[in-house]
Each structure stands twice: as C-alpha cells, then as structure tokens.
Specification:
- Helices cover about 40% and strands about 0% of the residues.
- The chain is mainly alpha-helical.
- The model has no long low-confidence stretch (mean pLDDT about 95).
C-alpha cells in the first residue's frame, strides 16, 4: 500500500505538495491558497476536536470532494483503494501519525427541519453578532471585517476570512458541512471552534450564514 501510495502521490500530488510533502512543490508559488504542508500533521478540515489528527474519513472526504475555491481538485474517479493508499503515504511525512492516536470523530446531529427558516435566520443573526463573527467576516458576511487584512495561518501565509455571500466553502456548503466547521473550527487558522455554543445556536448560525448567499441572489429573508 505504501509503494502504491507513493506512485499515486508522484502522479497526482507532488506538483503542489512537493517531494517532501512540505507544500513546496513547483506549482506552489503560483497558488494563492497554498498547498497543505503534510510534515506538520496539521489539517484544516476534519471532524475531530481542535488539536487532534483527522480521521481517514476526513482525509477521504477531502480527496473525494476537493476543496472548492482552491486549487485542490476532487478525485472521485480515482478508485477508493487508491485514495486510501495515498492517505497511508502522506502520513509518513509527519511523525505525529506514529506518536499520536487519532481521537474519534465528534458526533454531529441530523439537520433540523428549522434550518433555513425565517425564525432560525433571525436567531442566527444574534448568534453571529454576539460571538464576534463580524470582526473577521464583516457585518455583511463579505469577509471584510476589521481584522481581515491581518490574519495569518500557522504556516505564515496570509488567509482571508470566508466570504459568505459567495456561498463557496472548502469543506462543503451543505448545512451539515457548515455545522461541522463551526463545531470543530479550522485547524491552523484563526478560525476557532464554536463547539461551546449550544446545538440550536450553531444550527441558527448555519441558517444565517446560508442566508448571506441567498441575499446576494435577491432572496434575503
């Protein structure tokens, strides 16, 4: 599996992620969103608690879906067994995988029927305001908050807060995807976990975030 993963990595991944898996492939300088540095063992999009390694399912989700809004493509046509081989291979770049045991994924509830309703959007507006989301994402959800221009990730790259008006999300734009990101945060970036909020508050926040894109299309509630 390791050798199979190496060959696949060389075929599909090395151009951006580099021979050493450090995110410094030949194509990396051309990319606005920099490739993941696998040597740190830090992954942005996952279902596990902040500070822990992702599960194989998390990594598989990224390979299968890609990361919309970045240069990371989706690989749904690559056989699942080969995608798992790539996952096994990229783990060798960081010693975290041999020293730490991944924590179980958090358990996320099903999407409530109220998500997207007028009432949920209104409550979500208060959650957004009360938890300082506008500082980075802006009052209009356009990613132009007061702190937006000064944000960096742990790799020293400038990062822009998500523009909710576009409705494009790297970890997925379905309600369940947004709930997961709000709950776990985005590892390695200034986006924290809001798992301390109640489930209802997080779902209402999802409703409000989704409404930004609807408003841009003329459907503000």
């Amino acid at each position: 599996e390791f050798e199979a993963g190496r060959r696949l990595f060389d075929d599909y991944c090395i151009g951006c992620h580099g021979v050493k898996g450090d995110g410094k492939g030949k194509g990396a300088p051309l990319l606005v969103v920099k490739p993941r540095d696998f040597t740190s063992g830090t992954f942005k999009f996952k279902s596990t608690p902040m500070g822990s390694l992702p599960t194989d399912d998390d990594l598989m989700r990224t390979l299968y879906r890609g990361l919309p809004g970045s240069a990371m493509p989706a690989f749904p046509l690559v056989p699942e067994q080969e995608r798992y081989a790539v996952i096994a291979y990229i783990k060798h770049f960081s010693e975290r995988w041999s020293k730490e045991k991944p924590q179980p994924a958090l358990v996320f509830p099903p999407v409530p029927a109220a998500v997207g309703s007028v009432e949920s959007v209104k409550r979500g507006k208060d959650v957004y305001a009360n938890n300082g989301c506008a500082v980075c994402h802006g009052d209009e959800g356009n990613g132009k908050g007061l702190a937006a221009s000064s944000l960096e990730d742990v790799w020293g790259h400038s990062v822009k807060p998500r523009n909710f008006q576009r409705g494009i999300y790297r970890a997925g734009g379905e309600p369940a995807d947004l709930f997961r990101t709000i709950s776990t945060g985005v590892e390695g970036t200034p986006m924290p976990s809001f798992g301390q909020l109640s489930e209802n508050e997080r779902w209402d926040l999802v409703s409000y975030l989704m409404n930004f894109a609807a408003a841009r299309k003329g459907g503000r509630r």
